[in-house]
């Protein structure tokens, strides 16, 4: 562990010569050893070769020979290495000589390499470092040599990933009075800051100051960065203040560090304000500072503000780079705003900035998410053709796109291409391929990819096994499905309710309901699997097979047992979808009351049903003419803040017209428009049909035939005008109500005119307008015209309904033989 002992101040001034001499006097062995080492101040002019056997050589002899090469440091260093390679054990004397030679020659890199080799070999020099520095302190180049050696030693420990030892050496040297250069102190503090927590960084920083180091702008910036990383913005600000107090002038990197800290804690707005404020004081920021703010704003989903920063860069004569645009493009891709992402990408390339595989990856991934797989593959091919670098991420996206499009041959070609290029293939990639084959029901190939995955030591996860197991169940490979569960147990991969729920649903998709029910019954007995996820899976399975009654029966049973409770958010989301589907199926079958029970249960479980579920039940109550319950649900929907739309209002209006409650229908129509919702063609059709019902419902004793005709004519003209003023045109359904209305008020001429008008507009009438008009002709006794229309309808391949056929028979219509 790093030692953080505190020692007394041992020197005043930068070079503690008195302390060193005192140390040497107390350690005569070092002085004696040093005396045996040839002096480099009066060097041997003629290099002396080593002629003896290495095993018989003394350290003194090797040191003497090394010293003779002081003018040829490369040869001296090679000789030192050769002796070492042949088994000679260097000691203090030989190390001292070679280090002195390297220091004299300024060979920093060789010095670093020398120390690194020792550290990586065993970490032991065979002597105390204090002895080495004691020897070096006797030379006339003391300050320069000591700085070189201490710097190299600490750098070597740090580069060899012995950071704790580097700190220990720093303390040891500091206690002896040897303080590394400012550059090395900054290097060491930065390494510690990148690898240890803030508390340790603070201790090292405090000890540096204790050893007499005066922090410069770089050291204080490192401290600010460490504080910002731990979100200690107030302390970081104090460091900034300390700079001003000590006369250290902050530079743009200091400000950028603090801005980065603000952005990291979600205060990018404050970072932007500071950036603008400081840049106005003639401090020049490079693109990094602006990119930090852009990235922060994008992460906070403030994309418009982020784009404004891009504009601010240009105004301050800072050229945006690929990272500037990359942050914005990623932000828009995360928000699924493809058009804006593509626009920025095009703008970037027009400015001469080259796209890269990261940026392309954002766009291609979004295209796949939006099911624009063909477009994603087209972009991938363009990128390949351009010769730009394509990494494994882009290959994986392209393979995923092929799998979604069921182009497994192309997917496998790219997969093999990745192997040739030596690109990594991870579990997500294998899972995509397995899923692709499962979607094609090619389980042999899916299993083959899975086996290949295991052989390559790419461990499958629960998602991989869930997809493969689901494919087995869907295609009737039950043995393989349960063998997979055994394999998962062997590799320590636990199954869960989601996994088994997937099995149940896919068994149902494969029309294996009995097997699904057996599995469900087994799992239900196990307390570990009794959860909402499993129950929802069985209900979903019933619905997939059209067994709505069984689905509701299970739902009701679980409700009575009190089992419809789960704390898992993922389970709740899945169950919400299943319950909404159950509501839909119940409403389709006209079982609105049971659908209401499901809705009520969802509300009690805080599932917050969506508008679709509400709309379906409201429509169901409208169909059975229970408008009180329909309106109560409508009010509850509004109260919960869910959105209403034209479709919902139209449904309610239609319901009120059916029960002859004109006032409520008209009030809803007005309310809808007041909320800014424009009626559509269906809404106008419902209003027209409602007015027709209202007119026909009037007592014939009060309103005569001619008055009915006139009222409906006036009403229809007004609605037609309103509809067209909105830029809408009537559809077949609208014309059907119009024709039926004119026919029912005995205005057969008007009915025929609108039928002809419908055909002139290019609409093709179906059986309903034909039926309405034929019934109108039958009602007024014009059987021949009815017969002509019926023949015309049959000629066009439109099938007459049973009612029309019956009417034709009752009126003795003679349809021409076919």
TrEMBL record:
Cellular component GO terms, alphabetical: mitochondrion
Keyword Repeat: yes
Classification via Pfam families: PPR (PF01535), PPR_1 (PF12854), PPR_2 (PF13041)
GO biological process: mitochondrion organization; RNA processing
MF (Gene Ontology): mRNA binding
TM region positions: none
Keywords: Repeat
Keyword Transferase among UniProt keywords: no
Each PPR repeat, start to end: 216-250, 286-320, 321-355, 391-425, 426-460, 461-495, 575-609, 610-644, 645-679, 731-765, 766-800
Descriptive protein name: Pentacotripeptide-repeat region of PRORP domain-containing protein
